[in-house]
């Protein structure tokens, strides 16, 4: 008899009841769907939108959000001052997190979204000329952008050059890499480009490979270290009260990133004094060239240090000892007036002078209104937007798939994680649906004297936490010399005391007359088990198989404990390793969680009909 009678179901009272019931069910479904959608959205995010906690990625519907996400990706893991100097950031822009909180003003500050066709042609001309200049620029004063993307490209570059990681370790003299996927440019990212006396380690093979890789990168994937950036870093380190400095200098600026290096015309005594100290103490020597007028002084100084004559070098020499002497002379013996400073901005201006000659020609091609070449700085915002407009569809697809592709690539190439997981899960499920039913059937059909003791032993295995059971299991497998084998991964999970107890109760619920009828028809025990009991047990076997699958697939601690060899690690161990390797990218870790949860979801979908069908208890009339 139904709980709700059939007659009168269309009355307002019952319709209201149905509405409330469906509303409650929908709310319950929402409590499961909402966290899943948030996780899925986080897995296709980056530094810009990871902490937005949205159920739908905003950049799929808002082009401005896509542009802001593109910029965050481009300057990701770089010193934020690189971005802030290029975009003349106000004081309250401290990171991309602060930009996200001020996203409306940030987009307005860019003033580029929605450019018409003519303006886009001008932006393309700017970007094309900039790319031509970058080819001739000193690669030692260049930084790679799009950190996550160039990281993969750098690994592929090394893989193609060295073919195997042993050759890489031998060439670099490090011997610490077990895979190309562990080469993360972590050393290169820590080079102190803003320090005055730091010189590139050009004698190192690793640095040579790095600069070779940078040379081959497109112009849109790297940027020069500008004088504006170095000047802003100097002001950051020397000015404790920017407001007082601004009033003292008469500046119309909101932050150090908006303070341009002073021109030859005297603007402010305090600013000129700070700039002179910057050139004397903080300007990088790698961007200094010694004039020939100091040649004799340099040779005498070097002879005193070496005790022998050495060659004169305008730029820093490659030989390490000579480089030390050159650095000492350039910093202590050659004042700024006797140095030739290679300002990237000035080199860019000279390039434009040679290309366009007349200022009006450049203004016409670029859509600018510059009054002189001296006021021109790097048009980084225009270049970024030109790249975005040219490749917006590409970057949208990259943001949707990149995290998942990197996770899958990492899992597929590391050791034998996919194969190991497939073997362990398959055999565990097979053992769960064969060995457990056999044990339970034997306890039901054969009246053993110790049946109760066996059942009590099965129940006792449920009384201890899995972590406690791991200790004797590990010691036993070690004594049997089975560590780092499939046997160690499989044996503890093939049989479950809970499964035997559950199946024994089910088999006992089957009428005894069914067993007797099968025996009278001539069926032996294996036939009864395979042709009658197993088909009737499909729902409970599906449940036990699903539980065995989840347990074997999601197991981390046990494989990590008994398989110290990376070749025997399962997928979950590599997910743990992935978390450690990509800890600075939480959104990629979320992508890993989403990806590894797919097999469990598919297993449940395929088994849900059998599970929801319930356990059928046959009856005899």
Protein described:
The chain contains 28 helices and four strands. The strands form two sheets. The protein has a two-stranded antiparallel ribbon. The chain has a two-stranded antiparallel ribbon with strand order 3-4. Mean pLDDT is 84; it is low at 614-621. 63% of the residues lie in helices and 2% in strands. It folds into four domains: 12-43; 70-225 and 380-406, no CATH class; 260-375, no CATH class; 414-612, Orthogonal Bundle (MetI-like fold). The chain has helices at residues 12-43, 63-74, 80-86, 96-101, 103-110, 117-136, 147-162, 165-172, 205-216, 227-238, 242-249, 269-282, 295-306, 320-333, 344-356, 359-366, 380-413, 417-445, 451-460, 466-479, 486-490, 497-509, 512-520, 525-536, 538-554, 557-562, 571-581, 586-612; strands at 142-144, 222-224, 288-289, 340-341. Helix 18 (417-445) packs antiparallel against helix 25 (538-554) and helix 25 (538-554) packs antiparallel against helix 28.
Number of helices: 28
Give the end-to-end Cα distance, rounded to a whole number of Å.
22 Å
Q: Helicity range of the residues?
A: 55-70%
Spatially, the strands of the biggest sheet line up as 1-2
Indicate the mean pLDDT.
84
Radius of gyration: 35 Å
Number of domain modules:
4
CATH top level class name of the largest domain: Mainly Alpha
Describe the oligomeric state of these chains in a short phrase: single chain
Structural class: mainly alpha
Portion of residues in beta strands equals: under 5%
Write the CATH architecture name of the largest domain.
Orthogonal Bundle
* CATH-level-4 superfamily name of the largest domain: MetI-like
Low-confidence stretches: 614-621
Shape: elongated
CATH topology of the largest domain: MetI-like fold
DSSP, total strands: 4
């Amino acid at each position: 008899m139904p709980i709700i009678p059939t007659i009168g179901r269309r009355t307002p009272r019952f319709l209201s009841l149905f509405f409330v019931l469906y509303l409650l069910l929908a709310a319950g479904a929402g409590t499961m769907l909402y966290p899943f959608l948030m996780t899925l959205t986080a897995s296709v995010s980056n530094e810009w939108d990871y902490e937005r906690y949205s159920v739908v990625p905003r950049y799929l519907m808002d082009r401005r959000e896509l542009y802001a996400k593109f910029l965050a990706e481009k300057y990701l893991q770089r010193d934020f001052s690189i971005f802030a100097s290029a975009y003349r950031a106000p004081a309250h822009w401290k990171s991309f997190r602060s930009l996200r909180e001020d996203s409306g003003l940030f987009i307005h500050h860019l003033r580029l979204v929605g450019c018409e066709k003519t303006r886009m042609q001008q932006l393309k001309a700017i970007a094309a000329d900039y790319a031509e200049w970058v080819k001739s620029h000193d690669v030692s004063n260049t930084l790679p952008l799009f950190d996550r993307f160039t990281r993969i490209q750098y690994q592929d570059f090394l893989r193609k050059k060295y073919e195997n990681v042993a050759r890489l370790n031998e060439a670099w003299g490090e011997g610490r890499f077990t895979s190309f996927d562990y080469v993360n440019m972590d050393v290169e990212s820590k080079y102190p480009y803003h320090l005055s006396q730091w010189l590139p380690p050009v004698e190192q093979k690793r640095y040579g490979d790095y600069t070779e890789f940078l040379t081959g990168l497109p112009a849109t994937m790297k940027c020069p270290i500008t004088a504006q950036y170095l000047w802003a870093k100097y002001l950051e380190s020397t000015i404790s009260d920017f407001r007082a400095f601004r009033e003292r200098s008469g500046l119309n600026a909101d932050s150090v990133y908006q303070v341009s290096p002073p021109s030859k015309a005297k603007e402010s005594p305090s600013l000129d004094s700070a700039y002179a100290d910057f050139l004397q103490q903080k300007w990088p020597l790698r961007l200094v060239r010694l004039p020939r007028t100091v040649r004799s002084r340099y040779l005498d100084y070097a002879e005193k240090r070496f005790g022998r004559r050495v060659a004169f070098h305008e730029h820093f020499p490659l030989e390490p000892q000579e480089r030390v002497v050159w650095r000492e002379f350039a910093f202590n013996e050659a004042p700024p007036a006797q140095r030739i400073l290679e300002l990237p901005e000035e080199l860019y201006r000279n390039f434009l002078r040679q290309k366009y000659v007349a200022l009006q020609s450049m203004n016409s091609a670029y859509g600018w209104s510059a009054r002189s070449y001296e006021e021109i700085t790097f048009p980084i915002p225009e270049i970024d937007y030109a790249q975005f407009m040219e490749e917006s569809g590409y970057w949208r697809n990259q943001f949707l798939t990149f995290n998942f592709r990197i996770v899958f690539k990492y899992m597929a190439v590391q050791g034998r994680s996919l194969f190991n997981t497939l073997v362990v899960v398959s055999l565990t499920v097979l053992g769960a649906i064969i060995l457990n039913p056999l044990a339970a059937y034997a306890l039901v059909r054969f009246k053993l004297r110790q049946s109760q003791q066996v059942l009590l032993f099965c129940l006792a295995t449920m009384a201890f936490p899995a972590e406690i059971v791991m200790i004797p299991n590990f010691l036993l497998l070690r004594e049997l010399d089975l560590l780092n084998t499939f046997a160690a991964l499989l044996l503890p999970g093939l049989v479950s005391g809970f499964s035997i107890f559950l199946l024994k109760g089910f088999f006992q619920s089957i009428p005894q007359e069914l067993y007797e009828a099968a025996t009278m028809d001539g069926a032996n025990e294996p036939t009864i088990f395979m042709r009658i009991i197993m088909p009737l047990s499909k729902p409970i076997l599906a449940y036990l198989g699903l539980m065995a699958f989840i347990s074997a697939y999601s197991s981390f601690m046990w494989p990590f404990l008994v398989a110290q060899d990376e070749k025997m690690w399962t997928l979950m161990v590599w997910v743990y390793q992935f978390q450690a390797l990509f800890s600075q990218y939480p959104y990629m870790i979320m992508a890993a969680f989403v990806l590894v949860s797919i097999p469990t979801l598919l297993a449940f979908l395929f088994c849900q009909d059998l599970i929801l069908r319930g356990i059928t208890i046959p009856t005899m009339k």
